[in-house]
Each structure stands twice: as structure tokens, then as C-alpha cells.
Amino acid sequence: MPARKSTGTADAKQVLVKELQRLREASGFSYRELAELTNYDASYLQRLHTGESNGSPEALAALDNVYSTGHLRGLWELSKSAGFTKYFRKFATLEAQAISRADYHASLIPGILQTAAYARELLRTHPHRSDEEAEAMVELRMERQANLFGAEAIIARIVIDELALLRPLGDSAAWADQLDHLMDCAQRPNLTLQILPSNAGAHYLVGGGVSLLWLPAGKCVAQMEGTSTGQLVDDPLDIEVTRLGYDQIRDRSLSPVESLNVLKKLREGTPRCNEV
What we know:
Blueprint: H1 8-27, H2 31-38, H3 42-50, H4 57-67, H5 72-82, H6 86-97, E1 100-105, H7 116-123, H8 131-144, H9 146-149, E2 155-161, H10 162-165, H11 172-186, E3 191-196, E4 209-214, E5 220-225, E6 230-233, H12 236-252, H13 256-268
Parallel strand pairs: 1-2, 2-3
Antiparallel strand pairs: 1-4, 4-5, 5-6
């Protein structure tokens, strides 16, 4: 049987873990001593050094200071970047190059419009994900939003299913912040935000989601998403079908003005599209 090829995730993380172990052995510090020097819990530091926890940039910066090094946080950043699943690493690279995009998700606020609090509550629902890992993923998600709000913001059309808006966060203040963020986004010149009413009927993307990216050379690619999986699509025929499916959703959605009114009413406590 041929040897299994290692992934970028494993390679990057193994380098970090081996370096942490080497530095601790060379320093002679116990985990209790490291805890006193960094103000991090000893058991947390042990999990970090053994690879059981991905850690955080602040923790690695603290260890850089203790070990008189300057590369641990950089290794963590590399490990974090490699931490995407294989399909998503490629999509993230293309996403950073996109000049315009269109998004829809059936049950969640699309990631590119999530607040940190929304993303955090969502990502922490994974039964085997530590708080440190979830926090690193939140940071990544926030970084991915940069090209929507910077000086060179791209054009984006985003459709949100009403069902996603009927599933608020457990933290009511954080949910109010998410709605405020959506209203702010809806009024940005580069963003068109629409809501698909729950009574819009069946459509091609029922139960899933899609992100369509238009690249500088004119090529379009799509990311089809399920609850916790995704598939990158670049075949021209499949892209055309996906684009037409997205157009079907967009045509059944409320207008941008009506959608903003729905968000305002939600913020005031009125939850349904049919009450606009």
C-alpha cells in the first residue's frame, strides 16, 4: 500500500508542535512554570505543546516572549492558514482574487456578513472543537470579509433566506448587533442585500447554499455548501446551472428596499416577511 500523502494542515501543525516541544525541553520549564510566566493555564499550555489544542496567536506570542524567540506566532499563522479543509483552501484563495460575488444560504447568515459573535456561537456548536480552535476560525472568517469593506471593496449580491433570520442567537444583544450589521451592509453602495421569503416555494438550492465568484479573467467558480461540507465547482455547464438557480432565488426575493424594511422590523421585534 502506498504511503498516504500528508496534508498541509498536518505538516504545518507538526512543525509548530515539534518546535514547541524542542523549546520547552531546551528551557527546562515545567508547564506550571510556563503558566506563571505567560498567565495561561498549565493544562492549556500542555495541550498546546502536545498538539491537542491549536492555541491562539496571543498564547504563541506569550511563548515567543518566554522562549526569547520570534517565530512561534508566525508558525501558528501558517498552521492556521493550512487548517482549511482541502476544498476550502482552494476556494479561499480564489475568494481573495474575486472582483464580484453572489451568495445565498438557506439556514444561516452567510459567512461574509456574520459578526464575530454570530460566527463564534455557530462555530462553538461543533462537539469536538475547542474554544481556542473556534476562536481561530472566527478570526479567519473576519479576515475573509476584508474585501467587502475596504477601500477596494468588491461588488456583492447577497440573498438571505428568511429562515436564517428566524433563528436568532442565544445572546439577544449579539443578535441585535448582527441585525444592525446587516442593515449597515444593506445600505453600502457595493452591496445588494435581499431576503427570500419562506413562502417563495421550492427552488434549486433548497436546503443548501452557494457562493459564486467572478475572477479577473472573467471566469466564474462556485462553492456549493451543505451543513458542514462544501464542493468547489468550476465546470462551465455546472456553473451555468448554478447561476440560473441563483437567479431563480434572486427573482423570488424581496427588493433591496423591502428587505431593509424587514430587517428594521426584525430589529424592532416583528419577525415575518409577510408583515412588511
